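Quick one, T. Sequence first:
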Amino acid sequence: MNSKNRIIAALLLASLALPLAAQEPPPQYGYSIVNRYPHNINAFTQGLFYHEGYLYEGTGKNGLSSLSKIDLNTGEVLQSEQLSRRYFGEGIEVVGDKIYQLTWRSNIVFVYDKESFELIESHYNATEGWGLAYDGEQLILSNGTNTLTFLDPANFAPQRSVQVTLNGNPISLLNELEYINGEVWANVWQTDFIVRIDPQTGNVNSSIDLTGLSDQTTLGSAEAVLNGIAWDAEQERLFVTGKHWSDLFEIELTGPR
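Structure tokens:
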């Protein structure tokens, strides 16, 4: 972790522990492991979602970036599409019969047919692409800053944005996103925290401390940090994993404390 990222992580921890005067600290949840599933330790996980019984994963790194449909229970890749070596894949999301996939610094968003993985179209993205979620009307984009941008899925045109803050402090390095029960959940890159964000105000409503979860799996590289949130809305199951982790975990929240 470089010095800038250490500062961000320290700010996050300080914000959680020491709220500004006259402010109540937001609730902080722990976790318990309900189940574990196999995960490709070579996958540099950038985007994750669960849809109609299957896990979908977008991976990064030039020459290794892909979009895959995966059997949750076995980890078998059922369908996959490789990106050109020039692209570093990032967050993914499903909207209707389409799957959107960000690229990091290429300013391109790829749109695929959900069933065939055929590339249908692409859109311009003016910022870096990190995480992507969908609230039922608009796509939600993170770009490594504390800004979330809401976009029209039809043309990827920005509609509005919010600044994410915790106790008045901006929280940057927002990475993989998931929209769960009216909140935006975001991994904070290179930390063990997920923050739960009010999409109207940008305020962090609560956080989840996943410290120790990486000790429960095999890590495949020095870059094997927490990243990846998927929500099974029908059965209310929460899945998390990390880059180069050998397991994907189903967890339940405990607390708050």
